[in-house]
């Protein structure tokens, strides 16, 4: 089976929320194929969907290292770190990410979450206010976010 067919199968499994099958489809790839950014993005998506947070941290950090200007990788790396309980490291990943993150609503939203978890509700509220200015739809998400209980109006 050629690479394109395999990647299409991986995407299909992810759309069906079958992350283990998606990862299984990638076994046996040549190393140069497996470590391409395109394949690693799919690996990360499957790991996150399967809540394999430790493995996802490694994959996301590898993507950040090789693509230091791609803000989505930093958001994912930070989220995975937060999920394994290292919220301080998650915040640092975002703060050390590309400057373009400052214009991203998810950067502000996640910084708000991380600040709330780390015990700084005033900073959290400031980040959340900016996130909602950039993307009002995040307000609805925040109302059900366990990390933000009591901060969102």
Give the gist of this structure.
The protein is built from 10 helices and no strands.
Could you name the key traits of this structure?
10 helices, elongated, Tetratricopeptide repeat-containing protein, single chain, 153 residues, mainly alpha
What topology emerges from the helices and strands here?
Blueprint: H1 3-15, H2 19-25, H3 31-34, H4 37-49, H5 53-66, H6 71-83, H7 87-95, H8 105-117, H9 121-134, H10 138-142
Q: What class, by secondary structure content?
A: mainly alpha
Task: Provide mean pLDDT, rounded.
Answer: 95
Rg, rounded, reads 17 Å
Question: What is the overall number of helices?
Answer: 10
Mind summarizing the main beta sheet? none
The helix fraction, in percent, is 55-70%
Helix-strand pattern, N to C?
A: HHHHHHHHHH
C-alpha geometry = elongated
Please give the alpha-carbon distance between the first and last residues: 52 Å
Strand segment count? 0
Percent in strands:
under 5%
Uncertain segments are none
What does this structure look like?
The protein has 153 residues and is mainly α. The protein has a domain at 104-153. The chain has 10 helices and no strands. The termini are far apart. This is Tetratricopeptide repeat-containing protein.
């Amino acid at each position: 089976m050629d690479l394109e067919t395999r990647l299409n199968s991986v995407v299909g499994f992810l759309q069906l929320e079958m992350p283990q099958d998606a990862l299984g489809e990638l076994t046996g790839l040549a190393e140069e194929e497996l470590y391409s950014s395109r394949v690693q993005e799919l690996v990360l998506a499957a790991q996150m969907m399967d809540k394999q947070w430790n493995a996802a941290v490694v994959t996301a950090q590898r993507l950040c290292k090789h693509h230091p200007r791609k803000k989505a990788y930093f958001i994912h790396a930070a989220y995975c770190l937060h999920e394994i309980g290292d919220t301080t490291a998650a915040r640092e990943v975002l703060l050390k990410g590309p400057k373009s993150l400052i214009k991203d609503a998810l950067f502000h939203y996640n910084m708000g979450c991380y600040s709330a978890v780390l015990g700084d509700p005033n900073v959290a509220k400031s980040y959340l206010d900016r996130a909602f200015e950039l993307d009002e739809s995040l307000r609805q998400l925040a109302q059900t976010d366990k990390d933000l209980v009591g901060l969102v109006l």
